[in-house]
Amino acid sequence: SQQGEEDPQALSIQEGENATMNCSYKTSINNLQWYRQNSGRGLVHLILIRSNEREKHSGRLRVTLDTSKKSSSLLITASRAADTASYFCATDDRYNQGGKLIFGQGTELSVKP
Amino acid sequence: GAGVSQSPSNKVTEKGKDVELRCDPISGHTALYWYRQSLGQGLEFLIYFQGNSAPDKSGLPSDRFSAERTGGSVSTLTIQRTQQEDSAVYLCASSFRPVRTGELFFGEGSRLTVL
Q1: How confident is the model at residue A66, as a pLDDT?
Q2: pLDDT digits over A85-104, tens only?
Q3: C-alpha angle A104-A109-A112 in degrees, rounded to nearest 5
Q4: Handedness of CA A46, A50, A56, A57 (dihedral sign)
Q5: Average pLDDT of B92-110?
Q6: Mutation test of the interface with chain B: which of A25, A27, A41, A103, choosing the one with the most B Cβ atoms within 10 A?
Q7: CA of A31 to nearest chain B CA: how many angstroms apart?
Q8: Is the pLDDT of residue A2 over 60?
Q9: What angle do CA B63, B64, B65 make, to 5 degrees?
């Protein structure tokens, strides 16, 4: 079963607005990662936040992590039409030394010009 | 190579036939992963390699699915006696560091259609 669940499943906004996506997970983690997938393409890594971090920034991206609630959010500020894509959170399992990432179902973001 | 390479990019096959999907990871990446993505869905973990061994095969859906990796590099995912429910995009990813500290690099995927 999938580790992460994301909401909303789909989000439509206007260019310039901010987009917020949420992710919840089930187990204890070492880190949480966010990936982006353009239609018909592979996934591209955006940002990694460690379990001892609460907030991280990268350009127009801001990620928060609340390990007590087992949840994370991805904020994209001043969105652009080129941000249109699906966004996935992914977590490892602190107690699984095998080291695989489990992905959520994703949020489909549409940014209208 | 510059990135993770997967082939074929598209494969159409008839129900009951066997298919092989190939993944060529980034040079030097010791970990290799296979995921499956059905239309409009998230990624389903299939199998993970560290070097040539597979510590975690827990995601393989049935015994019709198998994978191997040779020389710590190229991996092949084989699906025997394909069924229509096997239709999906099969994504390969590799990493240099363990995922508890590092990211995955994905290929573009192999789209499998079983008629």
Answers
A1: 97
A2: 999 999 987 776 556 888 98
A3: 180
A4: negative
A5: 87
A6: A103
A7: 6
A8: no
A9: 85
Task: Give the model confidence (pLDDT) of B35-75 as tens digits.
Answer: 999 987 889 999 989 888 888 888 999 999 999 998 889 99
CA–CA distance, B36 with B60 (Å, rounded to integer): 10
DSSP B84: G
| Mean pLDDT (chain A, rounded) | 91
Of A31, A33, A106, the CB nearest to B42: A106
Chain B residues near residue A35 by CB distance under 8 angstroms: 104, 106
d(CA B47, CA A34): 21
d(C-alpha B28, C-alpha B76), whole Å? 18
**Closest of A79, A96, A98, A99 to residue A87, by C-alpha:** A79
Contact predicate A102/A91, CB 8 Å: yes
Could you tell me the two tokens for B37?
């993505």
Token pair belonging to A12: 């439509």
